[in-house]
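User: Hello! I'm new to structural biology and keep hearing that structure can be predicted from sequence alone. Could you demonstrate with DUF1738 domain-containing protein? Please show me the input and the output so I can see what each looks like.

Assistant: Of course. The first part below is the input, the amino acid sequence of DUF1738 domain-containing protein. The second part is the output, the predicted structure written as tokens.
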Amino acid sequence: MIDKKKRADPRQQLVDAYVASLEQGKIPWYKGWTVERPYNIVSKTAYKGLNQLILQLAADQEEYKDPRWMTFKQAKDNGWKVRKGEHGIKLTGWAVFDIEKNKTISLAEFNRRKKEDPDFDKNRYRLFQGRSFVVFNAAQVEGVPEYVRGPIQIKGNELIERLPSQMGVALKHGGDNAFYHPLHDFVRIPDKENFVDDYVYDSTLLHELCHASGHHTRLNRDLTGKFGSESYAKEELRAEIGSSFLMAALQIKPSPAHIRRHAAYIQSWITILKKDPKELEAAVRGAEKIEKYIISVGDWEKELEVTNDGKLKQNETPHKSKSRSSKNNDPER
């Protein structure tokens, strides 16, 4: 159950839960994972960043299977009723300052302008942290229509496998390990048949491309850290959370093999988060930049656009896993 004493500080609760999970040898950002990322039942907007992770943690602890969330007011306005005694989850709100008009607008209004205005200028706006707000899961609310998940129809594998050329990263196959070489700007990954299934291959490739996003010609992160160093562990944390966000966006559920691959970094992540809990927030900010960059360079926006029924657009066929159970290799750097 969620610690009620820490309910007022969800970020610290998230860090504490992550450290506890890592100490058990588990990767916490995959907890509470449903195929759909948590989203607001009214606006159909997916929660992102720390809010996404906080809701996934709550879903895991409370065993919620429904990805839909809402505020108390949204429930009331729609004729639904939050059950007596239910406790919500506090999230961080965001707002946007319109420099030209010298006024604050909602994030929803900003997104509407971005989508509809052909002359949209992002430099006119500044995003800032607003007031916190509380949301409830649909499972806590009476009268909400039953949740029915539609078929997954995003070609996640094709989107991922097009990325190297779209990013300008050389992709080389062969060897036993997967890694990104920042000096020569290439990703090396074992041949696809050496992976347990396509999911593991694609998630491994996506993880390494998240590292490649840090090249000085792209997001320009410090990639000079050596294995075992604090800076190396921080980069691994950014890339792994970033790839988890992207996998959620593609509706690809991680396999146990994908999660096991990162056991080598668990102790270093524990050390980092215990030393400075704010490192998780910093890693999430870095992961969001990675997610935004890859969605943009990969031209994924149309594939990931949320429609009015809360489901992702269904223009394509599902990402299919071709099992290779006879293989037991699980290569990763």
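User: So the tokens describe the shape?

Assistant: Right, they're a compact way of writing down the 3D structure. Reading them back into a model, for example: The chain has two domains: 4-93+130-142, 156-304.
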